[in-house]
Amino acid sequence: MDVVARLASQSAVVIFSKSTCCMSHAIKRLFYEQGVSPAIVEIDQEMYGKDIEWSLARLGCSPPVPAVFVGGKFVGTANSVMTLHLDGSLKRLLKEAGALWL
Questions:
Q1: CA 72, CA 61: separation in Å to the nearest integer?
Q2: Residue 9: strand, helix, or coil
Q3: Which helix (H) or strand (E) is 73 found in, with range?
Q4: Which long-range contacts (CB under 8 A, 24 or more apart) does 82-88 make?
Q5: Fewer beta carbons within 10 angstroms: which end of the chain, N or C?
């Protein structure tokens, strides 16, 4: 869990992903299209990827990826992020975290 917290706090937006996951790809594209450059942690390419995946599952991520952190706080997985995007809350969170200026 400490590894996830440390990685999540290193950037305004951090996405834990798997390189082969289509939902991870869709969430990354969403952030790129918003003008945000998130830090991406591809857990299937990390030496401690299984430990990270286990920690994300303990946080309540089901499935464990994509898991999105904004301002060091867990925002949710794909469904939660898409809901925030559709209701306009995601932009506000991104501005508050300093990931988006306009």
A1: 16
A2: coil
A3: strand 73-76
A4: 82/30, 85/30
A5: C
Give the residue-averaged pLDDT of 11-29: 97
Rounded to an integer, what is the distance from CA 2 to the centroid of its chain? Answer: 16
Counting runs of H as helices and runs of E as strands, what totals does the chain give?
A: 5, 4
What token pair was written down for 24? 């991870």
pLDDT in tens, 30-88: 999 999 999 999 999 999 999 999 999 998 888 999 999 999 999 999 999 999 999 99
User: Please, are residues 7 and 14 in contact by the beta-carbon 8 Å criterion?
Assistant: yes
Angle at 65 between CA 42 and CA 4, to 5 degrees: 65
Instruction: Tell me the two tokens of residue 98.
Output: 């300093």
Task: Tell me the two tokens of residue 72.
Answer: 């060091």
Interstrand relation of 73-76 and 67-70 (parallel, antiparallel or unpaired): antiparallel
Name the residue type at position 32. Y
